[in-house]
């Protein structure tokens, strides 16, 4: 009897710990994604347009060195991609563009999608962990009933574990689902904003390469 009680307490505590760990990991990934998106985009479209006006002016004039100095040290996505493409301009427009887009997908989007997939895993696993606690709690309750001389406090404790773990799993998954939807919108806006900036960059970059191309 004592062994069964100790085992019940151990598994109950392990279930609570697993739920807490899942919640913390999901929230950590959300915070990292939210912060990284904020670091990689301009705060407003107007701010990005002002920045791209300067970049376009230098690129169309063929001033690649000036462009590199202008974007140097800026950790936002567009300046970093501009720097990468301009640094690889000797590869030609198409190849430099491909190198830049591959780096963006690998270094920015893949990292965000990787962390977002972890949040999805937490959303799916938290209710399952809660369900495990529910099943285990009900097993303990039936075991208590099978003993004949039922201790109301022990029975209530078993049922409480079942209810708390179920509620905890849902309390973790439901808010994370809402937060993920918000994060997806934020990522989509970032991609739209970056896409608009890159459209302007590609046109100016191509014009700059044509301007400095050797004449036959």
TrEMBL record:
It is a multi-pass membrane protein. Its main location: membrane. The keyword Protein transport applies. The keyword Ion transport does not apply. It holds the Pfam family MotA_ExbB. InterPro entries: ExbB/TolQ_transport, MotA_ExbB_proton_chnl. It is found in: Cell membrane; Membrane. Residues 102-190 form the MotA/TolQ/ExbB proton channel domain. The chain crosses the membrane at residues 14-34, 116-139, 159-183. One of its GO terms (cellular component) is plasma membrane. Keywords: Cell membrane, Membrane, Protein transport, Transmembrane, Transmembrane helix, Transport. One of its GO terms (biological process) is protein import. Belongs to the exbB/tolQ family. This is Colicin uptake protein TolQ. It comes from Stieleria marina.
């Amino acid at each position: 009897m004592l062994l069964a009680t100790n085992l019940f307490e151990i598994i109950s505590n392990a279930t609570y710990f697993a739920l807490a760990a899942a919640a913390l990991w999901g929230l950590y990934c959300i915070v990292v994604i939210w912060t990284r998106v904020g670091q990689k985009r301009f705060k407003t479209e107007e701010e990005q347009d002002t920045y791209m006006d300067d970049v376009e002016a230098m690129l169309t004039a063929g001033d690649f060195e000036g462009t590199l100095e202008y974007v140097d040290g800026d950790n936002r996505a567009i300046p970093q991609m501009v720097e990468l493409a301009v640094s690889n301009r000797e590869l030609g427009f198409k190849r430099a563009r491909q190198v830049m887009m591959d780096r963006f997908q690998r270094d920015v989007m893949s990292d965000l999608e990787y962390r977002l997939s972890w949040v999805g895993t937490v959303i799916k696993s938290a209710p399952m962990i809660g369900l495990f606690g529910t099943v285990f709690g009900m097993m303990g309750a039936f075991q208590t009933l099978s003993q004949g001389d039922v201790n109301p406090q022990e029975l209530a404790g078993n049922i409480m574990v079942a209810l708390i773990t179920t509620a905890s799993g849902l309390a973790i998954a439901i808010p994370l689902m809402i937060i993920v939807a918000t994060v997806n919108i934020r990522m989509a806006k970032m991609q739209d904003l970056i896409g608009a900036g890159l459209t302007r960059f590609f046109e100016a970059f191509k014009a700059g390469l044509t301007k400095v191309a050797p004449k036959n």
